[in-house]
Q: What sequence folds into this?
């Protein structure tokens, strides 16, 4: 998803599941509970969606994010391929 920059106040929300955002381009501002931080291109996060959260573009440019979401709340399973 691509999110343009805006001046609106963040509105935190909660819902079931887990989310894994990965920043493809730009800077992503993340509010997660009491934490407020910025992620750059190539960075990823994982969180339980029951924690109040919000994310959007940081600064004046847009941000492009790939976000995986699992309603079942299971943690992501990574597999490494070996040659």
A:
């Amino acid at each position: 998803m691509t999110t343009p920059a805006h001046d609106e106040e963040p509105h935190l929300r909660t819902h079931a599941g887990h989310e894994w955002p990965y920043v493809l381009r730009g800077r992503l501002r993340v509010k997660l509970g009491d934490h407020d931080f910025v992620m750059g291109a190539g960075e990823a996060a994982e969180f339980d969606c029951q924690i109040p959260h919000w994310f959007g573009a940081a600064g004046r440019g847009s941000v492009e994010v790939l976000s995986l979401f699992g309603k079942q709340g299971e943690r992501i399973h990574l597999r490494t391929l070996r040659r």
DSSP finds no helices and seven strands in the chain. The chain has a mean pLDDT of 88. Residues 14-69 form a domain with the Jelly Rolls fold (CATH 2.60.120.10).
